[in-house]
Amino acid sequence: MRSLHPGNGFFASAHVAALALIVALFALTASPAPGFAREEAKAEVFDEAARLVRWKFYDPKLHGKDWDAVVARHRPDYLAADGKQGRAAAINAMLAELNASHMIYATDDDPAYYQLVDIFKFGLRDDIKKHFPNGVSYPGIGIFTREIEGKTFVSGVLAGGAAAKGGLKTGDEILTVDGAPFQPVQSFRDKVGSEVTLSIRRERGGPVSVIALTPERMEPGAAFRTAMKESARIIEANGRRIGYIHVWSYAGQDYQDLLEEALSSGLLKDVDALVWDLRDGWGGASPDYLDLFNARGPDMTFTERSGETDYASFKWKKPVAMLINGGTRSGKEVLAHAFKTYGYGEVIGTRTAGALLAGRGFLLSDGSFLMVAVNDVAVDGVRIEGKGVAPTIEVPLDIPYAAGADPQLDKAVEVLSEGTRG
Predict the structure, then answer these.
(1) CB burial class (10 A; 0-12, 13-18, 19+) of residue 209?
(2) Which of 11, 227, 302, 336 is the most exposed place for a label (fewest CB within 10 A)?
(3) Domain assignment present for 17
């Protein structure tokens, strides 16, 4: 809309009264109706997300999509949505039309929102100060969940977290929290440090059980590091000691440092073989993390006067097997591809997500989060996006009512303890 100020032509020859009439008529004919103005304001975040996709998506042709048409198709759903979940669904449906990974919209009702903001914290540090004055954290119990046939199942439990302490297991169907429908964040708001009761079903068609848990204030990076350290354990099989560790997130060198510490001087230093679990969680891994398992490289240690030894370069020279599944994504898929291609050991589980683009995170004006794929990625000239990495030994894991059973881990232990496969 043109502003009315001297020099723009409106004052050149008009009488003051005539100008007033012109302004009045212009306001009647050109100003948006009140309802339209409200809709435009409501759509601000939707339009902001659409613009960022247009400007930042790695393919300037947007995979051949008429982006204006895509936006126009999903905008009414966003405007008609009731609540944050409905609006998020509309934006994610728009993003899904590009058929690309690393296209995610999330609000503060979703644990992924906090986890992704923390992963992208360096690029978002100024916005984080605005939207998270006390740091990035959320109320939770330390689980991943998956919707299957309209039901909510636990798909992963973070070792050392409230859910693990309370006995929740992978495969449990969550029915209610304190008698209300389960919501991954909302169910625990204002309940940190106070006991809640979860109604669950562990067997298909079985009885409902009640588990008491105490939600915690979770800082994503700290929670993943704790879960990684707490996951480390030794499994005895056929006279061999098999080490196990689960890397839930690889978004930072600190996770690799924890792995090297566990293997060089920690709990797993004297085991006979290792299960390296990269299932679920988040990627971010660097290809050079595989150097740890290059047995042809040198070890280098420093020994202090006190006798304390520290590794400057540590190499794991014993057998190792990798666990993968459909939740193994992004940088973890780079590791899976190379681990398999260069013969480091068996890769056990199911095909990875096929989600290997490079993403960038944005905090929108209302504080919600948008990730946009900003680079295409190839590994050794191979494009993994949309294809994934197949295991060398296929072992499915049916989540619903698994009661904590883990046939993929069982197979890895079998392979490492007996040298069998297939």
Answers:
(1) middle
(2) 302
(3) no
pLDDT at 295: 78
Question: Tokens for 126?
Answer: 């100024």
202 pLDDT higher than 50:
yes
Question: Over 80: is that where the pLDDT of 15 sits?
Answer: no
pLDDT in tens, 248-276: 999 999 999 999 999 999 999 999 999 99
Domain match, 152 and 293 both: no
**How many whole angstroms from its chain centre is CA 398?**
21
Q: Which domain holds residue 322?
A: 220-418
| 386 and 279 in a common domain | yes
> Do 226 and 346 fall into the same domain?
yes
| Amino acid identity, position 81 | A
218, β-bridge pairs: 138
The verdict on residue 207 lying in a domain is yes
Among 201, 218, 235, residue at a domain's last position: 218
Query: Average pLDDT of the chain?
Result: 90
Which residue in the block uniquely carries the two structure tokens 């949505």? 81
Full-model pTM: 0.88
Two tokens, residue 131: 């939207």
Could you report the per-residue pLDDT of 230-253, keeping only the tens digit for each? 999 999 999 999 999 999 999 999
